[in-house]
């Protein structure tokens, strides 16, 4: 994630507290573009955030969300700035 431009966007498609649940999620769905998982802390709880692909603009990310398979659209994917992702990763490493 750190290699991606901070002014780009990704789609957050899931957030889970157990790595096993992340693996089950990945096994249940097929993805055409890269999926990335990163850990963060929310309060005192560890979370794993599942993101999909990388986009130059928020509008490209929104458009891509509308083109996802129905089962992924039903999860309510939303654009997330890479600058925010990097802040969340930093919480984990502090």
Automatic annotation (TrEMBL):
PROSITE patterns: SPOR. InterPro entries: SPOR-like_dom, SPOR-like_sf. Residues 3-81 form the SPOR domain. GO terms for molecular function: peptidoglycan binding. This is DamX an inner membrane protein. It comes from Vibrio maritimus. The lineage of its organism: Bacteria, Pseudomonadati, Pseudomonadota, Gammaproteobacteria, Vibrionales.
């Amino acid at each position: 994630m750190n290699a991606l431009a901070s002014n780009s966007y990704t789609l957050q498609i899931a957030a889970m507290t157990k790595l096993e649940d992340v693996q089950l999620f990945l096994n249940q769905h097929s993805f055409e573009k890269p999926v990335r998982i990163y850990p963060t802390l929310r309060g005192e709880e560890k979370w794993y955030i599942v993101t999909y692909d990388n986009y130059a603009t928020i509008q490209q990310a929104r458009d891509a969300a509308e083109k996802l398979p129905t089962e992924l659209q039903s999860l309510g994917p939303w654009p997330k700035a890479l600058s925010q992702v990097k802040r969340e990763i930093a919480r984990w490493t502090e």
